[in-house]
Automatic annotation (TrEMBL):
Cellular component GO terms, alphabetical: EMC complex
Keywords recorded for this protein, A-Z: Membrane, Transmembrane, Transmembrane helix
GO biological process: protein folding in endoplasmic reticulum
Lineage: Eukaryota, Viridiplantae, Streptophyta, Embryophyta, Tracheophyta
TM annotation in the entry: 14-33, 119-143
Compartments, record wording: Membrane
Membrane topology note: Multi-pass membrane protein
Keyword Membrane: yes
Organism: Cynara cardunculus var. scolymus
Record Pfam families: EMC3_TMCO1
Source superkingdom: Eukaryota
Protein name: ER membrane protein complex subunit 3
UniProt record similarity statement: Belongs to the EMC3 family.
Amino acid sequence: MAEELVLDTAIRDWVLIPLSVVMVLIGVLRYFVSKLMRTSQLPDAKIIKEGQVIIRARNLRAAANFIPAKAFRARKLYYTNEDNGLLHVPKGQAQNPQAQMFSDPNMAMDMMKKNLSMIIPQTLTFAWVNFFFSGFVAAKIPFPLTQRFRSMLQNGIDLSTVDVSYVSSRSWYFLNLFGLRGLFSLILGEENATDDTQRMMQMSGFGFDPSKSLGAEKDGLDIVQHEWVLPKFEQRAEAVLRKRLS
């Protein structure tokens, strides 16, 4: 049977609360530091134009059945024509976003700044938690959990007799690291509350690839089966009125 522990109030005052406050302050400070290090970049007119073309093509696919067949074929040819269609990308002009990033020093520098603003505070904070709070049982979850949660909630405590609902100080650090987005959205605003999970996902991305998006939208337009629905609206309206009046 798992052993029940009585947590000292000093652990709450000197471990749990300081660790939570420090994590919040570091998150806010990191946001303002990354904002200061951010360089203002002018948007690429070509990328904006291609993005608008993709939006217009999606609108055409969504409203294809509300325009006559002749008008749809003309618009479809305007987008998918192999010679000068807006969605057609020649094979030699396809861009590699990864190569584009490394060829642009400003983009590579911005990505390095973002990575440093995330990695350095995490490394220093983890070393601080490991040095001062290693081995502490910081909190207890008020509901029972299965043994699968032990490795997640009791990182740094190698005791199988402790109940799974107890949380170690190191695990509390990780829970704060990945779970404070809701609080940051209240402090910094919803658009600025990017948590560390999203930052890690952004580190592996290399930006917008217009050639793939244009090609996917072209394939989507090619497979659209047009069926004009407006001539059937009178019959549908008549059927609805007859049903209501009967």
